[in-house]
Design brief:
Elements (H helix, E strand, L loop, with lengths): L1 E2 L6 H5 L4 H15 L19 E5 L7 H8 L4 E5 L3 H13 L7 E2 L2 E2 L4 E10 L2 E2 L5 E2 L10 E9 L1 H8 L6 E4 L5 H6 L2 H7 L2 E5 L2 H4 L6 H11 L4 E6 L2 E4 L9 E5 L1 H5 L1
Parallel strand pairs: 2-3, 2-10, 3-4, 5-9, 10-11
Antiparallel strand pairs: 1-13, 6-7, 6-8, 6-9, 11-14, 12-13, 12-14
């Protein structure tokens, strides 16, 4: 088991990005403890450090953006991406009120190649289910009622090159089954930097793109054998060998990343 890193003191922690950011980070950590936010937030400090550059792909409501900005501090950088207008504006607002100044936020999708697509948001009982919004390309929606929103598509590799980012330390991707396509568009960056990857991997989402969890994991570990797969359990990152339906998020990290 691998213990998560906790800041030594609130005073030292606050200096990383200011008091507002420290408070925001503390709120998210507390929310994770009571299962209101994803529990993996509590373990980010093991492999994300001050000065790191990280990507939050599928930022949703900023659940990871704010804690990451606190951890990397003013010398680091957090770039956030979400193509859904509601998610983009909420994350931008949270970045602002928490004093997140390092990095950018963009209302775009990331995928295997640059271009244009649309986000499909299911409508159930007249209400949009934003949490199930996904890239529509190649998906048979059947008879469901769907709201479509056009979005530009970029790639991790192109973004990192244009922004001149020397090294990416961590990439979180939660995009409702489109994760393999996002990773495809970041192959050069991942090969260069071997960043820790936090990926949502669920068959129920992957199947809409003709993919499955076991195959996706096999591709990652086959392409980058230095990675090992972990899940957050209790207070530790625990090594696992397979995806389970009860777990959403999986960490792929090198021994060096978790030992630092």
């Amino acid at each position: 088991m691998i213990d998560a890193v906790t800041p030594k003191s609130s005073a030292a922690s606050a200096k990383r990005g200011g008091v507002r950011l420290w408070i925001g980070h503390a709120i998210y950590r507390l929310s994770a403890r009571i299962h209101f936010a994803e529990p993996e937030i509590r373990g980010l400090g093991k492999f994300v450090h001050p000065g790191d550059s990280v990507l939050d792909v599928g930022a949703a409501l900023g659940m990871y953006t704010v804690p990451l900005a606190h951890i990397v501090g003013p010398s680091g950088r957090v770039d956030s991406f979400d193509p859904q207008p509601r998610n983009f504006y909420v994350t931008r607002f949270l970045r602002s009120i928490n004093g997140v100044k390092n990095g950018l936020i963009r209302r775009i999708a990331l995928g295997p190649k640059p271009g244009e697509s649309s986000i499909a948001v299911p409508i159930i009982l007249g209400l949009p289910i934003f949490g199930h919004g996904h890239i529509s390309e190649g998906v048979d929606e059947g008879s469901r009622r769907i709201r479509y929103t056009p979005t530009p598509v970029d790639t991790i590799d192109d973004w990192v090159t244009r922004e001149g980012i020397a090294r990416i330390s961590y990439i979180k991707v939660d995009v409702e089954g489109f994760e393999p396509s996002v990773i495809e568009g970041g192959r050069a960056t991942i090969t260069r930097d071997l960043p820790s990857l936090m990926l949502e991997i669920e068959d129920r989402h992957l199947v809409r793109y003709g993919r499955d969890a076991a195959g996706f994991v096999g591709e990652i570990l086959g392409m980058w054998p230095a990675y090992k797969m972990y899940t957050w359990s209790g207070n530790d990152w625990v090594r696992v060998d397979e995806v389970k339906p009860s777990v959403r998020n999986y960490l792929f990290a090198t021994d060096a990343a978790l030992a630092s």
